[in-house]
């Protein structure tokens, strides 16, 4: 079932385990179940078909964009997270996360190309933070912010072919890899049909 919210110019479809996605008064929320994650260990085998987490995704319009949200996470166990998620192929996706990693709230990113990498960027205070995913040309960038005004550069990367990058789906994910479940909410959601002129100037 397609979920349409006024902040986004595209509909959102659920993927993965059921999470009870809901939208009310500007806030999107969901709950991941126990041991739910979307991650392929770098030294492991191919993606375990039972390894999945609830996602809510839509096809981004053509061209450059920024997807922004403030995420709040009900941290209970290591690696619980709320995520802005990017999908370009069955074995190619990326996440920018507010994650308990493993005992402090941390901005983390994961880029999966068959196998996943895993990067912790910096610790933050509290259970909420702003996340931003952008596309400029064929490149994607991740930023984080305490206030939604001044942004800290986290990562820039390419993912998939130019054709795949142009047809990317974006949205939200909730995970609880080691715990019994995790609730997360996303508010102040915004979509801007422009890229970033400078990834590192704080804008």
From TrEMBL:
Organism: Streptomyces laculatispora
Cited Pfam families: DUF1349
InterPro entries: ConA-like_dom_sf, DUF1349
SUPFAM superfamilies tied to this protein: Concanavalin A-like lectins/glucanases
Protein's recorded name: DUF1349 domain-containing protein
Superkingdom assignment: Bacteria
């Amino acid at each position: 079932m397609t979920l349409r919210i006024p902040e986004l110019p595209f509909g959102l479809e659920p993927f993965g385990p059921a999470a009870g996605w809901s939208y009310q008064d500007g806030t999107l929320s969901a709950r991941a179940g126990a041991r739910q994650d979307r991650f392929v260990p770098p030294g492991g085998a191919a993606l375990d078909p039972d390894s999945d987490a609830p996602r809510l995704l839509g096809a981004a319009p053509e061209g450059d964009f920024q997807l922004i949200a403030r995420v709040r996470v009900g941290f209970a166990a290591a690696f619980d997270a709320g995520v802005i998620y990017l999908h370009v192929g069955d074995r190619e996706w990326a996440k920018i996360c507010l994650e308990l990693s493993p005992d402090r709230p941390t901005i983390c990113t994961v880029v999966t190309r068959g196998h996943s990498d895993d990067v912790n960027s910096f610790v933050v205070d509290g259970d909420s933070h702003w996340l931003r995913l952008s596309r400029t040309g064929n490149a994607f960038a991740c930023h984080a912010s305490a206030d939604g005004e001044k942004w800290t550069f986290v990562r820039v990367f390419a993912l998939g072919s130019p054709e795949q990058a142009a047809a990317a789906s974006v949205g939200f994910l909730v995970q609880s890899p080691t715990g019994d479940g995790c609730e997360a909410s996303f508010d102040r959601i915004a979509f801007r049909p422009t890229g970033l002129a400078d990834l590192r100037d704080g804008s």
